[in-house]
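Q: My labmate handed me this sequence with no annotations at all. I'd like to see what the chain might look like in three dimensions before we decide whether it's worth expressing. Could you predict it?
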Amino acid sequence: MTKKTIFVVFSLILSFSAYNQNNVSGNDQPLYIDILVSPNKTVSINNHVNILPDYIKKHVSGILNNHSIMENENLVYRIYGTRSMKLGDIMDVQQKLYTLYPAKYERYLILDKNEEILTDDANWTKKLKQLEILKIDKPLQ
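A: Here is what I predict for the chain of 141 residues:
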């Protein structure tokens, strides 16, 4: 009876240990960083607005430094642009992000004419839900 009890306890400990190693972060959800590229080539990153392209690294690094390594493994940049922009403007920002920390990308185009409600607003990510948005490509790696 004691051998059986010891065996069961030992098995449970091994099972729990194996589970913890496979699920270190406890969260398989991706870490999203939302980036809005404006026609004047400034960007808004999460709740920071009107950032010059030279300061993208500083802001993204600050976000990543506040999250675990496992979350950074599931990092996804969601890049938004307006229909009056050129795809090259969005791709320039995407390239800066890639050199900082390679991750998956999702690019979106804001089709709504009321896109200016996002400008200079730290809550721009919440207002996106009110606008018509089109995903312009599949996620890239």
